[in-house]
Amino acid sequence: MGEITVERFTLPAPPGQPAPWLDCRVCGPQGAPWLLFLHGFPEAAFVWDDLLRHFGDRYRCVAPNLRGYASSFSPEDPAAYRAQTVGMDLVQLAQQFQAPATAVIAHDWGGAIAWGLAAMLPQMMQRLIILNSPHPALFLQALRDDPQQQQASAYMNLLRQPGIEARLQADDFAMMWPFFEQFGGAPWLTPALRQQYREVWGAGLTGALNYYRSSPLHPPESPDDPIHTLQLPTTLTHVKVPTTVIWGEADTALPPTLLDGLEVHVDHLHIERLPGATHWLVHEDPIGVKAAIERALA
Question: What pTM, to 2 d.p., does this model score?
């Protein structure tokens, strides 16, 4: 098992502006082929620690705290969290390794960013590995047309509300824990892990919530909501990179029906299903997730 260190990667900035940065959890030998791990909400880079140690015997594993999370830079403007802007952070991070990532491994919001990177900049990675993060074209269709998905994703509109941060932070984050506990009680959520989440959330929630506020993908809030006419060009959605999707089939917020038709958008697709896992499959089925990633990298 390798040692995990925290390294700060400074990103380029326009002249006269302070340089942004991403704090990354890193494991594995310098100069080895590298893997990029992208977390989602309401998590942070630490959720990948077990996988960083596992794959750090042969890869340089890099897990950034995305902008707005933990100790990475957190601009105030919600527009600074649009998918292409966040994606550029990762492009600039990847350029510092001077070689394509062997794989981008991404969950939830990290997956949303990774789908776009794979479509627009396939040269950045050799493989894409997605964990419970719907393809944007299929998610758009479901949010717009499927009442069940609209109900399952209603929390997204709650998280978009101005000032919701104070409510989420109240009473030891009483509104945050149900994101995990509604799926079978979350027995994996140990006291130590809870404390890691408290530290991340205590650093501020605004950046993480700005992903929801800046995204056009959310359940429609009115008959003239822009999602009703939104169209995504194929340059943002068609993926030619070999792709493995690992899906916890007990996810009720993002059900496995979101995989239907995925092959239309991904040229080289393999799907691995984990029937007993929910959205938090990295915590719930670490053995199954490791094995599926091993097969994807083989």
Answer: 0.97
